[in-house]
Specification:
By secondary structure, the protein is of the alpha/beta class. Helix content is about 40%, strand content about 20%. The strands form two sheets. It has a seven-stranded mixed beta sheet, sandwiched between helices. Helix 1 crosses helix 2 and helix 2 packs antiparallel against helix 3. The longest helix is centred in the N-terminal third of the chain and has 15 residues. It is elongated, with a radius of gyration of 21 Å. The termini are far apart.
Length: about 280
Amino acid sequence: MTTVRDVWTAGVRALREKGLPQPEKDAKLLMADALGCAPYQVSIRGSDAISADAQARFGSRIDDRMTRKPVARILGRRQFFAGEFAVTDAVLDPRPETEVLVELGIQTRAKRILDLGTGSGCILISTLKVLKDATGVGTDISPEAVLIAGENAHRHGVADRAVFPLSDWYNDIGGQFDLIVSNPPYIAASEMAGLAPEVRDFDPHGALTDDADGLTAYRRIAAGALNHLTPGGHLFVEIGPTQAGDVSDLFRAAGLESTAVHPDLDGRDRVVAGTAPKA
């Protein structure tokens, strides 16, 4: 009899030999998906039998992971702040450090929120789940991305308070907002080769880099901010760990006040904040 433990152990060994990090965790998540259960229900210490079909599904998922395809992309979903989000090839795989944007946004108690380059919608949707009286607009240049964001909004019960129009940054957006957030493409072209394969080869290229100095999006976002923020409104953008000074300078040059840099849980610069002047 072939057991879950036997098959899981073989999967862990294959991932470890490939040099992948956290092979035990990845194998457990992939086994749970193959079995159609939650990870905590996977018995890797007992003698539960595994069906041939489940073994084949697990093997296929391990093969995918061996190519450095991220687990979230294999499963088609990612846990982020407010819960589980659908993830496809059209959107950035949400990462824990981006949750800083959500935490800061919640503190503003904003009523109207704009999320530029929304991708999966995870930032806007997570914020709306906490700010029950708020409404939001999540824009993206990708038709596939706004569809996924809309599906995630339905999944999390905020579809009646969120819209996801196609727009190239502010181009098709009118009105003003109490809060603007964005996790834009900020990897410089010169840095792309050094990214982990899980990022470089599987995240949408346009969601990672501007194919320039990594600051193109911040120039656009900062330049249009005062036209789209209410007096005293807040702008928060995620940054790379070396970009705090450059992005802060762009904010100040655009007329934003009270610029500040916020770290992530690892202590790295992660978010630059600015505030529109009060009337």
